[in-house]
Amino acid sequence: MNKFGGDWTENKIEILVEYAKAYLTIMNGFAKKYDWKLLYFDGFAGSGFITKGNAENQKIIIGAAYRILEIINPREFDLYYFVEKDSDNINLLKKNTIDVFPNKIIHVVETDCNEKIESMSKFLASIKGKRYKTLAYIDPCGMQLNWSSLQTLEKLSVDAWILIPTGMGVNRLLKKDGKISDAWLNKLEVFLGMEQKDILSYFYKEKVTPTLFGDEIKVQKEEAIERSAELYQERLKKLFKFVSKPYILKNSSNSVMFHFLMVSNNPSAVKVANEIVSKYNKAS
């Protein structure tokens, strides 16, 4: 089983499921009218279940893959595609999806999410793929999602919920003094799809302090979590027409860990997403 924690683990799944039900309700009539097929894609599907807490106080959470497969009203998805890179999780995932729901068309693939996002994009852009409308759930635990992969989804009929590791990822790599290793800068470059010089100029500013021996120049990191969330949203708006407000995921110490949002080229889709996100943000 996957191990994770916090009420936000359950909340983001509830947000996704609530949106999926609304999505299927809205798309049901269109699918019948235009002979569309509805595809669900999960890029980091895990094992199907998540354990939370320590051994003495452990809770098992039903994962997103299982919850989505449970939906039958107003309709089901026509095709389910689950991607998981961890070999230990993949066998459990098959047992918790294919074995439990034998009458559904389910693909479970052991590979890297970026690879499958790109191949899915090529399919959706093809003549046959244009019949498919997709709801995607891209839920990495860190910075595994490459910006170049998201770029391939541009202009396609995809509503995608994306978990952004603003506190758990970007903030941890941005050292206070600006002295970041080449490996970490490369990681930020791939994740944000930006050149290193632009990343540094966005997150850092120089502070000049006069001293007896001349001006002392220090590099200071600005509010990295908030700025990384704003930056990622602004960059998403260059790929998709609409970006929802984020659900902000915090730990027990009230520190921001992730931002969870949806992108789409459909204004109605983001309106629904914003209504759901607003409800969960108020409850947090």
From TrEMBL:
InterPro entries: Tcm_partner. NCBIfam families: tcm_partner (TIGR04474). This is Three-Cys-motif partner protein TcmP.
